[in-house]
Fold these 2 entries.
Entry 1:
Amino acid sequence: MRATTDLDGLGLDDGGHLLVQRALEPLPAGGRLTVTGSHPALRVHLAAWCREHGHRVTEASAGGGETTGPGGPVEIIKGTAGEQRWRHAKRAGAADGPPDERADPRWGLAARGALVEAGGLPIGAEWTEREHVWADIAPRLYAAAAASQWDPATAVDWTATLEVPDEIERAVVQLMTYLVENEQAALIIPARLLSQLHPHFREVMQLLATQAADEARHVEVFTRRGLLSGGPLGTSSAGGRASLQTLLAEPDFTTASFLLSVLGEGTFLDLLRFIHEHAPDKVTADVARLAVRDEARHVAFGVAHTAHLVAADKSYLGVLRQSVERRHSALLDTAGLNTEVFDSLVLLAAGSWEPAAISRGWRAVRDLQASMDEGRRRRLAYIGFPDDEAAELSALHTRNFM
Ligand SMILES: [Fe+2]
Ligand SMILES: [Fe+2]
């Protein structure tokens, strides 16, 4: 098979090789390409380029006759290097379809659907099986997350006047201090899961990235509200931190997502709604409202992913159960919730130190705990736990809420 291409005055060092490459592409190995052009160094450069790319320049073209002189045609015989290079290449799944059941570590960072040249180091990802990271809702949740990113500087009116009685303000500051601590754990966990996830599961990777970004904003707005009256921040209890640290240590993708998102962030939905409802000022109400919207997505993924895995493997309920029990025993000797946080919730709902108000606040916090428990049981039942087991596991959930 033969072909010709004319480079006109274009040199190989000015992009002429692209024309040669394009003309060689349809030829089989051994096919001949005649290159014409008037660049004075064309022959010399072509010879060097062909050596580098495994093609040959024919004897005839280097000789005399019509082809003599710098502007004469040069004949190239196509080599086999190009074909060899892609012989063992494989597609990394399908770009527009769902991810494959198993992501090959040798695909590494290749885009899903790319033709992957063989060779290269495998990626050191921990999670390469779809069932262990996936939920069908992930692409939609990522799209919703991308569309719902808000700017902490403008989404909250930070200049709104703060007319909160000192003692109530101290309760708000304590709650904000506690929230920041929890948000920091909630940021680190998806970031850690993300770093060990095979990028073939693109939508989960993107979703975890937006989740970490959401938590970064929550850390910011809660810190900012905590400092709004001039600081300092409140206290951090050893028990609260111990509870969060057990989450950081959870080694498995699904149990980490289950403990953090289904049980912890699920419980936080009620907590944030409570703070929103009883907020003594607009800034507190706004930061709680903005955070709860994001948290709803985090919970939705945790629930959907856990249910997805359980649907494929019923025995996984046992693994989930053990993760709750293990965490419960690890935290047995800790105080659980910071008492200052509990008291702040009561005071927030009471609005004053009047005995009747405190009684109202106390009841409100008791109702809050009941609705947290009910929410956990509902989510556990959705995942597949029988009602009695769901109630049992909900009761074992950390007193720190997260
Ligand atoms: Fe958050
Ligand atoms: Fe979250």
Entry 2:
Amino acid sequence: MAKTIDVDSLQSFAPETRLVLGGRDPAANHGFVNPAVHHVSTVLYPSVEDFIERRARYLYGRRGTPTSEALENALRDIEGARCRGVALLPSGLAAISTALLAVLNAGDHVLVTDNAYQPTRKVCDGFLKRMGIATTYYDPLVGADIATLMRENTRAVFVEAPGSLTFEVQDVPAIAAAAHQRGAVVLMDNTWATPLYFRGLEKGVDLSIQAGTKYIGGHSDVMLGAVSANETTWKRVQETVHLFGLCVGPDDVYLGLRGLRTLAVRLAQHERAAMKVARWLKQRPEIARVLHPALEDCPGHATWERDFTGASGLFSIVFRPVHENAVRAFLNALQLFGIGASWGGFESLAIPFDCAAVRTATRWNPEGPTVRLHIGLESIDDLIADLERGLVAMAACSA
Ligand SMILES: Cc1ncc(COP(=O)(O)O)c(C=O)c1O
């Protein structure tokens, strides 16, 4: 018979251990290490009385299964003691919009960081606006001064640290303290750091949002989102998920759970490789700046050092002024860096970006063209050689 894992004692273990143990129940799975992938809808009740009284451990496929519970519990174990519940959603964007809808009502006002993932802005400027909810964007580096932007009807503050293109690190505890003082809740897109490198709920966040598509899945083969909520917000999140009938297919839940088990080793390698590549790029004459929270000159670096326990593999570079065609030559010459959205998988990626036209509260005016890199799990030396190849192509194009 498999040993039972004592859920209550889990929190005494290091995060890496909790990633391995969390949400596991071999005794309920015939001794197998992993849960079954339950493809289900209807639950059969033994009698009509049981049906009327809803006397069953599971009610209906969309209301939770042993597979979805395993991932929810595993995420809850890694979020820490303040986590009251985790809701799984079919994508990171669905997790963001569901979390916003859970805490906002018509007539409310929400403050959103100016460096937020662009589709988050579209939810606010489109759907929330239509529902009578007003959004104000704010400087990501505002810190405690967020208090000056709060209105009578400000019910929520949305943070994303660091921003996933421009990498300013927000002072989440200061923002949370100011928000809570005025009765607003704090939502955070914590996809970059994951709960392993930033314990959002312990830093004052009420709703910590993950695009599980990225590092949790970790293999570019699943769309997944999660909202981890504290005591203040969990009931509203759960109710919203149930009312909208939101759920995730069991195979995707399973891929999320499978990815989560190796998150610590993957992130450690992403971090090590990204730091090495970032430092190499920083000393190249073609590069004006490297936007990486762990580098001393990144806006908010001191906050990153204070609040985060690691850095993942995503950062950006600012080229010295050069023609757009030269940047294209750089990107097209790369063999190991694929060109594509998303990140957090095992593979390296590179995309050009320009958020000047998107921002409304701050100006984004870098010295030259900008490119975002995701550093995957390939050999670091091969990746550096690939970037060098790109820079040679860039020079040939500029000449
Ligand atoms: C920072 C950030 N948050 C959320 C999302 C949305 O995740 P998904 O693609 O799973 O909807 C993304 C996707 O790129 C992202 O980069």
